[in-house]
Write a structure and sequence with these properties.
This protein has about 260 residues and is an alpha/beta fold. It has 8 helices and 12 strands. Bound molecules: flavin mononucleotide (FMN) and iron/sulfur cluster (2 copies).
Length: about 260
């Protein structure tokens, strides 16, 4: 079983590629939360794949992924556990943070991978230039093939991570500050270009957007940036800083995916 979280489709793509090759199921974490259950119970056989695929947010796993892990209960045999995090450049110690979360459930990673993919964080940076975006997608395709080979062999102790510079500082000091101060919806708004198509409301993983005359944002937000990147009318902005920025979504994204 593979659990994934994705805002703009990079991690969705990775999460889809693996089950296709390994013949296992995959579930979106956001949809599991929609079931409003207190605990998520899964029974796995010895050696069965248990994977977590997610984007890196400020050098750590998204809060929704950590909240999900806090509620899972895995019974049965000893699964083969792996993680794949997608990021624009570097993961810091995101995998280590995931490792700590799953350890509380009696699980340990057999293998873990960082896959660089196009950047979607347009609040701080811009999207990658087209040639860089294409190169990242090509390289990611090759890396996912290699990951699939290693997973098929159930290799243990394979950690192919891209921590970047000062990873501990970024994950343990900067990430908590990001979670505290940068997760607000206050600056989101929709311009007159909005056609009221309802897509932003449909794809928001925390259901914080309501589209009436125009979209309105509630307080909850994981900063996945699905709304601003995937609005077909390019009507969503975040303050004034995103007006001149590009938008990014993986080609695998469609109106039903999150
Ligand atoms: C809130 C936020 C924080 C991010 N932080 C990082 C980061 O610390 N390092 C990095 O390389 N990329 C960072 N990114 C870029 C994403 O990790 C990257 O584009 C990822 O592949 C997006 O996955 P998705 O399309 O499945 O949502 C960040 C993106 C967002 C939205
Ligand atoms: S996705 Fe864009 S166009 Fe559609 S309702 Fe939301 S803001 Fe409006
Ligand atoms: S409001 Fe936008 S950025 Fe926040 S969780 Fe919903 S879709 Fe993601």
């Amino acid at each position: 079983m593979i659990f994934y979280f994705s805002g703009t489709g990079n991690s969705l793509h990775a999460a889809r590629t693996i089950p296709q090759a390994q013949g296992v199921g995959f579930l979106p974490i956001a949809k599991e939360f929609d079931k409003k259950e207190d605990a998520f119970e899964f029974t796995l056989a010895d050696g069965e794949l248990l994977g977590f695929v997610f984007p890196v947010y400020a050098w750590a796993p998204p809060k929704m992924v950590l909240d999900f892990i806090a509620r899972i209960k895995v019974t049965g045999g000893r699964p083969y556990v792996f993680s794949v995090c997608t990021c624009g450049d570097e993961e810091g110690r995101a995998t280590r943070a995931l490792q700590r979360a799953i350890a509380k459930k009696g699980l340990a990673l057999d293998s873990a991978f960082t896959v660089q993919m196009p950047n979607n964080y347009i609040l701080g940076f811009d999207v990658d230039p087209k040639d860089v975006e294409q190169e990242k997608l090509r390289n990611a395709g090759q890396k996912l093939e290699e990951i699939n080979r290693l997973l098929a062999q159930r290799q243990s102790g394979v950690f192919r991570l891209i921590p970047g510079s000062m990873p501990a500082l970024k994950t343990t000091v900067v990430n908590p500050l990001f979670n505290r101060f940068a997760m607000s919806t206050k600056k989101f708004y929709a311009t007159d270009a909005c056609t009221r198509c309802g897509l932003c409301e449909k794809i928001c993983p925390v259901h914080t957007i309501t589209v009436k005359e125009k979209p309105a944002w509630g307080k909850a937000c994981t900063q996945c940036l699905a709304c601003i990147n995937r609005c077909p009318a390019r009507a969503i902005q975040y303050g004034s800083g995103t007006v001149q920025k590009g938008r990014y979504a993986h080609p695998d994204c469609d109106a039903n995916s999150n």
